Amino acid sequence: MLDQLHMTSLFENATEGIILTDGRGKIIMANPAIERMFGYTEKELKGNTIEMLIPDRFKAHHRELRDEYHQKPSNRVMGQGRDLYARRKDGADMPVEISLSQYKRDNEPFVIAFIVDITKRKEIESNMLRQKVQLEKITEKMRQLNAELETKVDERTLILKEALQKLEQSQQELSDALDKEKQLNEIKSRFVSMASHEFRTPLSTVLSSASLLSKYITTEDQEKRDKHIQRIKNSVNHLNDILQDFLSFGKLSEGKVITSYGETSLKDLLSDTLDEMKAILKKDQHFVLNCEGDCYAYTDKRIFRNILINLVGNAIKFSDEGKTITINSRLSGDKAIISIIDEGIGISEEDQEHLFSSFFRGTNAINIQGTGLGLHIVKRYLDLLDGEVSVWSQLNKGTTITFAIPVNTP
Fold first, then answer.
1. What residue numbers bound the domain in which 218 lies?
2. 301-317 and 374-384 are packed helices; what angle lies between their axes, rounded to 10 degrees?
3. Half-sphere exposure of 352 (CA within 13 A, CB side)
4. Can you give the CATH number for the domain in which 24 is found?
5. CA-to-CA distance for 170 and 60, rounded, in angstroms?
6. Which of 19, 25, 148, 272 has a 20 to 30 A CA-CA distance from 190?
7. pLDDT in tens, 310-351
8. 100, part of any domain
């Protein structure tokens, strides 16, 4: 009798829902936990099949599963198998875990179902899953930001290294101590410093010569006037060159240079450009132009001309009076090859590896006016044309710069 009281108390006070069904799936008993869980009274449940607690979309299949279970009955532990859902009296679905036990009495099968409402657990799992997805998105975003940051750090470090090779040789250790923002600010300050320095000298020359011109008022002073007028012209030309370098460098850095291809006679383009540049030749300097064939190419005429002006301008600048500047042009396979040969001061082997860096100036060219951007701009222009460039040079013997561009077809 005492054991029966204990069993009854266990059945009625269990926190898990307990349902007893017969071999036909009809509900025989249901404990109070089932009533609280489903909203039915035990009276409402008794005599109905277990399918009344199954969502409509699963009922038909559940009958098949129930029949299969009775044919091959076995005990099933809580939490095994797929996700299960039950239906409350109010029609709401409820995620549950169910364990099954079976026994026979008088040769009639009975099934005990222990049911747990896992709604709260599912909500927690769903929240955890959402948090996991959010965390994965944040992690991926952080990875992308880190990759972008590493790329920016690499780019800024390279720019700083090129600028400091000449401008800050005595402070190389600064590149290891500065953070990324200081690196960018250093580049900007060096750029402004170089610009102001390069502008100051020709502007001072213009002001000085302009002031002196007012003192030479007689015919006998014409030679002196001509001298100062020429100095003003030279200074203005130099200012124009500096501006052109800075403007070109800015446009290239911002990706604002757009190519426009067309069929071009390189021979005519070389000849016309050299005619224009004769005005800046030093005393007794002269050009020699050698073109093998017509050298037609499908390329950007404006960019090609800018490359030529930069390279020929350097040849003039770094060569003494009376020297020859030779320009050779020829076709080789699918490329047009142009060489600019001067007899100037040359470039040391140590400096040659840095020639195409921004703001770089050779150690033997410190006292010659320039921004250190010309060859860097040439390299950037050639990249736009899918071209390439090479340098041969010896100190005090001259320099040959050769560039090649594809002979494209429209």
1. 200-255
2. 160
3. 15
4. 3.30.450.20
5. 86
6. 148
7. 888 888 888 889 999 999 998 888 888 999 999 988 888 777
8. yes
